[in-house]
Amino acid sequence: MITMEISERKAIDLLVNEFWRLGFFTISRRFGTYLPEPETVGTFKVDVIGRLKEKYAIGIMLSKEDIFNSNLLEKLIYLATRKTRSTNKPITLIVGVPAIYFKQVKELLSSIEEPIRKNIKLTRIEDSHFDEQKVTRHSQQIFFS
Predict the structure, then answer these.
(1) pLDDT attached to residue 56
(2) I want to staple 96 with a disulfide (CB 3.0 to 4.6 A). Which of 84, 89, 112, 125 is the partner?
(3) Where are the domains of the chain?
């Protein structure tokens, strides 16, 4: 579980939505029906891999356990310094963080060197966004059946 109400699957769905919002096409994702599971990057599991033209992105979802893990900084630095094999371009790291831990993770990122930090994008993951999407989708009036 990521937080009290967000399941791991919902959290990854919200992270995929963030990828789409940024224009990335999802190549692989955890808990996907039609897409393959992403391979581990080094020794770390990743949740989503996306592509936007020649640009790639790695997405991870941080749980409460991850945030209080002493290896978190090492994990973020390692994943944020990855480069593509052929063109040697940096790969963007998109980090999904539960809203209640967002400030804490943002403070932790301030201790990372500037060039690496520029390659990391933090995004709040809130259950309310997921519920709002479902409500608006089903609350429309049906004209034909």
Answers:
(1) 92
(2) 125
(3) 8-138
CATH number 3.10.100 is the correct assignment for the domain at 8-138: no
Residue 58 has pLDDT above 90, yes or no: yes
Of the candidates 14, 9, 2, the one whose C-alpha atom is nearest the C-alpha of residue 132 is 14
Give the Cα-Cα-Cα angle 71, 26, 72 (nearest 5 degrees).
5
pLDDT at 142: 58
The whole-number average pLDDT for the span 126-137 is: 52
Give phi and psi for 52, each to the nearest 5.
Answer: -135, 100
Q: How many of the other CB atoms lie within 10 Å of CB of 125?
A: 26
Which among 131, 56, 117 is positioned nearest to 86, based on CA atoms?
Answer: 56
Q: Which one, of 30, 50, 53, lies nearest residue 40 by Cα?
A: 30
